[in-house]
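A common beginner's mistake is to predict each chain separately and then try to dock the pieces by hand. The better habit, illustrated here, is to supply every component at once so that their relative placement is modeled jointly.
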Amino acid sequence: MTIPSPKQIKAMADAAGVPIDNEVATRIANSIGPAFEGFAPIAGTAPFDLEPASFLLVQGKKVSP
Amino acid sequence: MSTEPALMSLTAVAKAIAEKRLSSHEVTRSCLDRVAEWQPRLNAFMTIESEAALKAAVDADAALAKGQSRGPLHGVPLAHKDMYYDAGKVVTCGSLIRRDFVPSITSTALQRLKDVGQIRLGSLQMVEFAYGPTGHNVHYGAVRNPFATEHITGGSSSGSGSAVAARLTFAALGSDTGGSIRMPAHFCGVTGLKTTYGRISRVGAMPLSQSLDTVGPLARTAEDCALLLGLMAGADPEDPTCSTAPVPDYMASTTGSIKGMKIGVPTVFYVDDLDAEVAKVLDDSIATLRREGAEIIKVELPDQRQLTAACQLVLAAEAAAYHKRWLIERPQDYGAQVLMRLQNGLAIPGVTYLEALRWRGPALAAHVTATSCVDAVLAPVAPVPAPTIAESDVGTSPGAEAVIQRLTRFTRPINYLGLPSLAVPAGFTAKGLPVGMQLIGRSFDEATVLQIGAAFQRATDFHDKLPMPS
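With all components supplied together, the output reads:
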């Protein structure tokens, strides 16, 4: 997983319709970088058919100690 | 019983009004007297509605005299975080952008409290759009900690923590997306319940992150939180994310012994980089729970760093999406730090956001497996006691996000997993700053953490300590 560079972030923000300048893009890259690093070990490893809604299924299961 | 009604617990004062030992007017007057004394020091209230509250109290007393009670909160004055829509009342969400916003609906959680008789004292301060853990607000000023007014309250439910701690309101609604109920509970010495994702309807509660937002109370005791949870929980046809799971008798759970219960203590992550006084409080709390008959068991949790990272990715992307229009049209009307944090969400690709959401199910399943041998897990709320306002005023400095992430590192994994967690006052530092612990339960099992919290509070008196005017 690659941490987005300031240049990429600027392009993403522009595409989202929220333009930002180079300084803000650099600041965002530094701020959000650790979140990408922390998620990197599991990024791209999810099973193909894993649904986000599987969370609700797990949440609803009864568990006894 | 204290001679000052405002110093009573929520359950005690509600019972005293119901039994006509105290009038709603006496109780409301007592709260307003304390608000007048403390508000200039704390800045906990956004609005104070003295006249309307006293009139509502007179009406509540008159109704009760005729044998007409609206329910368990009849005539009890409360104030809540200024993000719960109350039709016809300004709800600022702690922001300049919504300074004059008047909703046409009332939030489901608030309506359920109104339906059983609560009286509105006013509204409580909060971090702008609930996006920050310190309590700073550049538009309306920092809220101050009643135990040491140069220290932060924690956020984002800053006014809720401060006002409950100073006994200005018997309880207050907060919201918890990354720790916003538990942080002020920890820093201000009150009890705060982050509910299971989906336990309480979010209709009419200002959104920050639809996958993580939860509604919950801050109060003086676990028993008070149980009372409020029981009144607010349950299905809402207007909120498809709100669970239809049955609502148990939470109050009944608070009377039970914890003898034989198993409480897990993590061996890694939650023990790293802890302030020495926070660590000592946790050790003492474990000893107390053991004396009360609980069995303490070490548990190895899955890697929590991945959960905190996933939580940050989901929160940032969803918050940016909610705020996109204002980010384009009114960026100058945000506080600099909140704007900076909202802009972070622009850097998260859709694929990454969805990956972080997809992992929630397996992450929760792994947590359930790792904790299957215990009833709840005990952990710190934050690695430190309340910093000063000055030292935590990091603004938009290069290290600001790192400071914020450090403060919330023990709370965010629980939001990602959607679990309930009760923050309970557990001790004080040598300087008199409160320290809390969190009791993390299973999905929809708030009853167990309330039971443990109530047992802990029967064995200790940290929740009874009053802040003194400095």
